[in-house]
Amino acid sequence: MLFLCLAVLASSLISIMMRVGETRARSVMGMFVVNYIVCAALACLFAGRIALYSPAPGIGLAMGLGTAAGVLFLVCFVLLQLNIARNGVAMASTFMKLGVVISTLIAILVFHEEPRLTQGLGIVLAVASILLIHTDQETGQKASWKWLLPVLLVCGGVTDSMANVFDKIGDPAVKDFYLFYTFTAALVCALILMLKRKERIGKEEILSGVLVGIPNYFSTRFLLLSLGQLPAVIVYPAVSVGTIILVSLAGVLFFKEALSRRKLLAMAIIAVSLVLLNI
């Protein structure tokens, strides 16, 4: 349970630090490049060496799964940007968060995890709260290219599930290598996009990237550790709704945001779902 709480905290800090960084950094992709450099460096630190290769059993699988996860990270980021531009931030955020449905279904259908009745109800309430909190009406925006929304949902869910796939079929002894390959692959993709857009890295991008990169690494690490202790059908919904509630509270405390009745109701549903998920 400790690792699950730490995963929620780290995941929340990513959103908070990204919000701070995006208002200061001129190059969002440059910020992501620095972020992934920090993540890869931390993976090496925990591995105790430069984690390029090891003759340890399972290293090939870790390399394959990690590289796939890293590429998917950037694909999801690009899809999120496209959906925000075409379909609005509310719809894009909703479908990104609803990726938890895909990761939960993969845990049930592929890895045969069976949630108890109370946990199943908690999952349903978690999805309901995500829909409620992210479906405020936007003015002046009409959805187009709607096919991008389900693509984002599936991509987000599959990306999240990669950690569970490694937990189930990978060797825990090489988890630091898996993390290194994940963040290195994401770094290469982000660097290519940055160069293609002719963006540059300045002081603000470096500072913001470091502030995002540290919680980003630990959110993935703690997620892996949580999956080693708890079923994925509990971990993924708990991390998703727990992050929503912490980020919402941070918005009120640090960014002077007001919580609407809709969001207050959603947060109450989230609290109930978290209780049910842990019964």
Structure, described:
The chain is mainly alpha-helical. The chain has one domain. The chain contains eleven helices and no strands. The chain has helices at 2-24, 28-47, 59-87, 89-97, 99-109, 117-133, 148-169, 175-196, 203-227, 232-254, 261-277. The radius of gyration is 18 Å and the shape is globular. The chain starts with a helix and ends with a helix.
Helix content: over 70%
Shape: globular
Taking all Cα atoms into account, the compactness measure Rg is 18 Å
* Series of H and E elements: HHHHHHHHHHH
Straight-line N-to-C gap: 13 Å
Low-pLDDT windows of residues = 138-143
Number of domains as seen in the coordinates: 1
| Biggest beta-sheet profile | none
Q: Report the total helices.
A: 11
What is the SS-derived class?
mainly alpha
- Mean pLDDT across residues: 83
Query: How much strand?
Result: under 5%
- Can you count the beta strands? 0
Features:
single chain; 279 residues; mainly alpha; 78% helix
Write the topology of this structure.
Blueprint: H1 2-24, H2 28-47, H3 59-87, H4 89-97, H5 99-109, H6 117-133, H7 148-169, H8 175-196, H9 203-227, H10 232-254, H11 261-277
Briefly, what is this?
This protein is mainly alpha-helical. It contains eleven helices and no strands.
